[in-house]
Write a structure and sequence with these properties.
6-stranded parallel beta sheet; 361 residues; Quinone Oxidoreductase, Chain A, domain 1; 11 helices; alpha/beta; Rossmann fold; 7-stranded mixed beta sheet; 2 domains; globular
């Protein structure tokens, strides 16, 4: 098999050049209209910069839902699935690398050039020549990832938990924690309790913050409490979230509002909930919105920041969280065999789950 790089929006994506004469593997194929199936795809090969793992577990991410809900004709030609939170056993590694066949590894899918100022700082997600190992998708029997962006899964960590440790499940909230700095004792309102909001609830609570979670799903509100939230309330039209937050903060507003939902109305609500000179951090993907900066931003003297995927500089903190006993495995509420991918996606989109993980024999 041959592999190539396609540049999209300033980022190099790892894409396959289909060659059906090569060996094949099974993978999840997104069909659109919320349907998936198990199909056949060419098996990736390692090269001097990358290794191939035999996948043991892969976690479903909310970022996959956009493609899942597309019409079949709208799906990209090279797209199988959006899986990118992947752990497994090294099947093939380049000579001279630190990895060998049989090693337990997880995939950090963003890899910088290793030479620019950003990369030297460990902030390789900002590299202008970064590469993303994500296509044709990580929900498959094999997955290819850069040698420099592969991480060892600690002994004693089971495979589904390894997918959380080395993927978005722990990486995204640890990155947000770095951006926010010390939040011990601060009141943090988390709007949206999907997997990103739930994982941030866990990390912020573990670090000593006082967390209130808000979601329209009673299941996820209850799960947030199990993960350490001091308060968790139902949102929606019939619930006064603003009043709940103001009561909780004695009328001041939250020190930090974390927006983990990709809806414009939730973003706007966040500005109503933050205190004067408080901080709003956007951790959920959001395409477009319109707001008045004077009323909700400037005169409140609020700080606004974003936080994305974890960088190499965050990996030591992720390992430290694991070693401290942070119960990140509680984020996983459902595990499905790879062959039951449709049931896994149905569960994920129902709102009655935390992290959903596929397992492989």
């Amino acid at each position: 098999m041959s592999w190539g790089w396609v540049r999209r929006g300033g980022v190099h994506y790892d894409v396959r050049c289909l060659n059906h004469e090569e060996s094949a593997m099974r993978s999840v194929h997104c069909l659109g209209d919320s349907k998936v199936t198990i199909g056949e795809s060419p098996k990736p090969s390692a090269d001097e910069l990358s290794l191939v793992m035999r996948v043991k577990a892969s976690a479903i991410c909310g970022s996959e839902l956009h493609a899942l809900r597309m019409k079949p004709e709208e799906l990209p030609a090279e797209y199988d699935n959006g899986g990118h939170e992947v752990v497994g056993v090294v099947e093939e590694a380049p000579a001279g690398s630190e990895f060998k066949a049989g090693d337990r590894v997880g995939a950090r899918i963003v890899e910088g050039c290793g030479e620019c100022t950003f990369c030297e700082q460990g902030y390789d997600t900002a590299c202008l020549n970064k590469r993303i190992y994500a296509e044709p998708g990580g929900h498959a029997e094999y997955f290819r990832v850069g040698v420099r962006s592969a991480h060892r899964v600690p002994d004693g960590c089971d495979w589904p938990e390894g997918a959380i440790l080395t993927g978005d499940g722990l990486g995204v909230p640890i990155r947000a924690a770095r951006r926010l700095g010390d939040t011990k004792g601060k009141q943090v309102a988390v709007l949206g309790l999907g997997p990103v909001g739930l994982s941030n609830t866990l990390v912020q609570s573990w670090g000593g913050a006082r967390v209130m979670g808000v979601d329209i799903s009673a299941y996820r509100v209850n799960l947030a409490k199990e993960l350490g939230a001091e308060e968790a309330v139902l949102g929606g039209e019939s619930h006064d979230v603003e009043q709940a937050v103001m009561d909780w903060t004695d009328g001041r507003g939250a020190d930090i509002v974390m927006i983990a939902a990709g809806r414009a109305e939730v973003f706007k609500t966040g500005f109503d909930l933050v205190r004067q000179q408080g901080t709003i951090i956007q951790v959920g993907e959001l395409e477009e919105l319109t707001f008045n900066p004077s009323g909700v931003f400037i005169r409140r003297e609020a700080t606004m920041m974003g936080s994305w995927y974890y960088a190499s500089q965050d990996w030591p903190n992720m390992l430290a969280a694991h070693e401290s006993g942070m119960p990140y495995g509680k984020l996983i509420t459902h595990r499905f065999p790879f062959e039951e991918a449709q049931a896994a996606y149905d569960t994920f989109v129902s709102g009655e789950s935390g992290k959903v993980v596929l397992t492989y024999e």
